[in-house]
Amino acid sequence: MVADSAIGILLYIIVNDYGQNNQNNLLLPNNTNSIKYERYIVYGVILLFVAAALVISFYFLYKSLPDREAPNDEGTIFGNNYVSYTIPNLGNGHMLIDRYNWGAQQGVQGKYELVPPIPYVLITHIGVHSRQCMNVHTCSIKMRTLQDAAIAEKSLQDIQSNFYLGGDGNVYVGRGWNRANAYANKSLAVCFMGDYGRYEPNEDQFSALEHLLTYGETHSLLTQDFRLVAHSQTRITRSPGIKLYEKIIKLPRWNPCGTPGYEHCGLEIGLPKVWDQEYAKPEVSVTSKGTVEISSNSLQDNTTEMESATIRQTTENATKVL
């Protein structure tokens, strides 16, 4: 609008001035070259104003579009209410993939509320010959598979652990900070995605674990003196795998509870010796012939990533006790 008015005024001045000096005085132009140059100047000025008008128009049009690349100033949020088109992260490139983004079943959650601050961090693994997932796509598929198996095969309310660490270095939200895991309340279960009786955990997973626990501690979700323990310290299981266990015991927050010579984990806060609060307990019975029978269904439900050798060991122990 402003540019159009300016062009109109400029044309009026040039044409009016040219008419007064030549046509109105019935004089011929001074020469042909001067007329040519004057036209070039007029055309140039017109093009300049048109270009300026287009630039201004495109600028205001661009500013009126929604900004999809706006940074997330709300910090790391463990929920579904953060800014659209952004994915929160815990720092150092460790993205936080929430339940919606990995395709969780909707309307399901753990049975018990998890009240912070949490005094224990429980480290588990998937086991059962599971390889590491190395990108969001494959890790998301694995998360949904784990959830489906937990609900359909083990009769659990939801996927077992609170958080899962992919081989891609990202953190996948399981039950999150607000719902207790399937093993024990007053604990935060963090599962390394893979079988670490066979494979080595990578540095990205440990970095993600460090950032997750730091977030929990700085936001008063974990106690300042929380204890980090392996799954095998709280029940008979090979989880989290020997290759992962050897690295866990070197972490500064690791606690030797549940190992020979130490009290069981959680004794001081009233937790049972065996952490399996949502799992069906094995049904042990003695037949008329004096043999021991253990219900296979309840035994399967009572083992998360146990291997067959561990199940046989449990049966032998039960026989000795009886």
Structural write-up:
The chain has 322 residues and is an alpha/beta fold. The chain contains 8 helices and 8 strands. The strands form 2 sheets. It has a 6-stranded mixed beta sheet with strand order 1-4-3-5-2-6, with helices on both faces. A two-stranded antiparallel ribbon has the order 7-8. Helix 1 (2-23) packs antiparallel against helix 2. Mean pLDDT is 80; it is low at 18-26, 69-74, 79-84 and 296-322.
Which short descriptors sum up this protein?
single chain; 322 residues; alpha/beta; six-stranded mixed β-sheet; elongated; disordered C terminus
Task: Describe what is shown at a glance.
This protein has 322 residues and is α/β, with parallel strands linked by helices. The protein contains 8 helices and 8 strands. The protein is elongated, with a radius of gyration of 35 Å.
* 3D shape: elongated
**Poorly predicted sequence stretches spanning 5 or more consecutive residues:** 18-26, 69-74, 79-84, 296-322
What's the average pLDDT? Answer: 80
Q: Compute the number of strand runs.
A: 8
**Measured on Cα atoms, how large is the radius of gyration?**
35 Å
Q: What fraction of the residues are assigned to beta strands by DSSP? A: 5-15%
Distance between the termini: 96 Å
Number of helices: 8
Alpha-beta classification: alpha/beta
Counting copies of identical and different chains, the oligomeric state is single chain
Largest sheet: 6 strands, mixed
Element string (H = helix, E = strand): HHEHEHEEEHEHEEHH
- The percentage helix is 25-40%
* Side-by-side strand order of the widest sheet: 1-4-3-5-2-6
